[in-house]
Amino acid sequence: MNVGVAHSEVNPNTRVMNSRGIWLTYALGVGMLHIVLLSIPFFSVPVVWTLTNVIHNFGMYVFMHAVKGTPFETPDQGKARLLTHWEQLDYGVQFTSSRKFFTISPIILYVASRHLEQEVTFLSIGFRYPF
Question: Which keywords does the record carry (predicted)?
């Protein structure tokens, strides 16, 4: 019995990552995490990039791969309670835009952080030794 349920999906976890604005919200959340970590005075920029990566990857691992089930009561007779969120995403169809986005976004975050960490290091060396 689904009293007060206003969605038409059998399992809302299957389509939540395709909703409007979820990718922008995800990117803004990672950006806000980075800004919050930058505001801590005793963290250097490379440490903040490392912490951003570690916190993001740990959170996504727990959210996507460790926690099973759904926060909603679903009429699917318990099928969703044995699946992780990654397995429920887009009804398990591979190579959808959401799966591609959530596969490539940690890679882009890692490459960007490594690039910017090295740029900060090179800039500091360049300012110390101009010739």
Answer: Membrane, Transmembrane, Transmembrane helix
Asked if 75 and 2 count as a contact pair (C-beta separation under 8 A), the reply is yes
Q: Which residue type is seen at 42?
A: F
DSSP sequence for 40-99: STT--HHHHHHHHHHHHHHHHHIIIII-BS-SS--SSTTSGGGSBHHHHGGGG-SS-HHH
* Token digits of residue 131: 């010739």
> Burial, 38: exposed, middle or buried (Cβ in 10 Å; 0-12, 13-18, 19+)?
middle
Integer Cα distance of 39 and 36 in angstroms: 5
The pLDDT tens digits of the residues spanning 32-44 come to 999 999 999 998 8
Q: How far is CA 76 from CA 2, 3, 4, 89, in A?
A: 12, 15, 17, 15
Question: Do the beta carbons of residue 12 and residue 72 sit within 8 Å?
Answer: yes
pLDDT in tens, 106-115: 999 988 888 8
